[in-house]
Design a protein that fits this description.
The chain is an alpha/beta fold and 155 residues long. The protein has helices at 44-55, 57-62, 75-85, 98-102, 144-154; strands at 14-16, 22-24, 33-37, 66-71, 90-93, 106-111, 114-119, 122-126, 132-136. It is globular.
């Protein structure tokens, strides 16, 4: 597990995505990227986060950025999730948590007395130079997409 910091070069990746095909950081070379990691499709907070980013997607695109959500769910689950909630952001499948590990967001979690490994909700704003411009660890969903958009506009 790595501990990425502001100014670090964002690790490249290529993952399967909703709707078929793959998504990679390299494919968006020269554009800012919002890369947000979330634990699980169709749970309350994850749904609200995806809907928030989707609702602001045109604003992100006007600012030149693409938005990519990443979770350990399968492409099949992503497809159902996107259709059910009319999501417009890209959803990448990291089933083996390799990317989550690379970005340092695959962590030990505790819930109801049970300890397990899972994604810690985290967002990375990656600049046109592929350097990490901002990191939001342990994201609280309310107002988060708006805050990320304002940071993007300030780049």
């Amino acid at each position: 597990m790595s501990h990425l910091m502001i100014g670090d070069i964002a690790p490249d990746f290529e993952l399967p995505r909703d709707g078929g095909g793959t998504v990679s950081l390299q494919a968006y070379s020269g554009k800012p990227i919002v890369l947000y990691f979330y634990p699980k499709d169709d749970t309350d907070a994850c749904t609200r986060e995806a809907i928030s980013f989707s609702g602001l997607l045109l604003e992100f695109e006007k600012a030149g950025a693409s938005v990519i959500g990443v979770s350990p769910d399968s492409v099949r689950k992503h497809d159902k999730f996107a259709k059910k909630h009319e999501l417009s952001v890209i959803l990448a499948s990291d089933e083996d948590a390799a990317l989550a590990n690379l970005y340092g967001v695959w962590k030990e979690k505790k819930m109801y007395g049970r300890t397990y490994m899972g994604v810690e909700r985290t967002t990375f704003l990656i600049g046109v130079d592929r350097r990490i411009a901002k990191i939001w660890p342990k994201v609280k969903v309310t107002g988060h997409a708006e805050e990320v958009l304002e940071s993007l506009k300030a780049l």
